[in-house]
Amino acid sequence: MENFKAFLKKKDIEISAKRYGIDALGAMAQGLFCSLLIGTIINTIGSQFHIGFLTSPVATVAGTDYTVGGLASAMSGPAMATAIGYALHCPPLVLFSLITVGFASNALGGAGGPLAVLFVAIISAEIGKAVSKETKVDLLVTPMVTIGVGIALSAWWAPALGKAAMKAGDLIMWATELQPFLMGILVSLFVGIALTLPISSAAICAALGLTGLAGGAAVAGCCAQMVGFAVMSFPENKWGGLVSQGIGTSMLQMGNIVRNPRIWIAPCVTSMITGPIATCIFSLRMNGTPVSSGMGTCGLVGQIGVYSGWVKDVTEGTKAAITGFDWMGLILISFILPALLCPLINMGCRKLGWVKDGDLKLS
Q1: Separation CA 255–CA 263 (nearest Å)
Q2: pTM over 0.85
Q3: Do residues 274 and 341 lie in contact, with contact meaning Cβ atoms separated by under 8 Å?
Q4: Burial tier of 93 (Cβ tally within 10 Å: 0-12, 13-18, 19+)
Q5: What are the boundaries of each domain within the chain?
Q6: How far from 289 is each of 40, 114, 215, 310, 315, CA to CA, in Å?
Q7: CA separation for the pair 225, 351 (Å, rounded)
Q8: Would you give the DSSP letter of residue 279?
Q9: Which of 162, 167, 225, 302 lies 20 to 30 Å from 262, alpha-carbon distance?
């Protein structure tokens, strides 16, 4: 057993919740951002501003035409797997082999491909690391083992994992349509919490394919955390803190939350208020890419995702037009309500002595 532990340490194989549930999951979200999400944004810009170069096909592969954004989106599987491999500290031959693994697992996983990529890429990467530089023909053995394991697991696991993820996502979305008030509270709260925790809410939403009314609630929860923390901590963190948390990430407050968990009350209660407002009053839907549901105001990706969904719905004829009520709902849920409610709720926490000066200060 000691020899085995020493081998794992030498290969930098760390079997832990942090390595797989935080590092790998967070990296997967970055891979999604740099492929599927950027591709969607490029397509939206091209169609809305009538930029010919962005709307015209630039390549034809197996009879399918691809725009610039389409090519970026098509590479989401390889991008996710490579990002995961980078987070797991894979040597070059393993890292490059994960490109094929990601393509296979994402394709075979269907709509739930991101979850399949997460599991298959992690196992393939760790096995690839284990054999890396153990033979004199490493150039052949390492890619062959990594790709072989990845393809086998993709064929074996990816379809089932993809279906399971989509069924879970469908169940959440069905429940939200059935009970928009209750599910608006729950989805908004839990996705918002996931955004602030050192895990990836974007990857979770992508893995579950969370769109529609549930996706709108998820956007509300993320915005409540990001804008809420940014505005209520403004007296201590000023403009730098406002920008870094408001369009960056509320995860910056994680250290302060560990020291005083009560500072999290205001953003969480805010998300429980804005979530059902989004679902019941404005019927805010995320019909863009699922990963956008878990991004909130980070780079305004959540808002761009909602808007791209509106554009798609209008194009497909499922929505007559983008109305002023749509815009009012998006702006209120994303910015105004969190900026007003969170500081007010936090003021009550301060009067109770639960939050004190300096508790929200970013180091």
Answers
A1: 11
A2: no
A3: yes
A4: buried
A5: 2-164, 179-351
A6: 8, 12, 10, 12, 16
A7: 21
A8: I
A9: 302
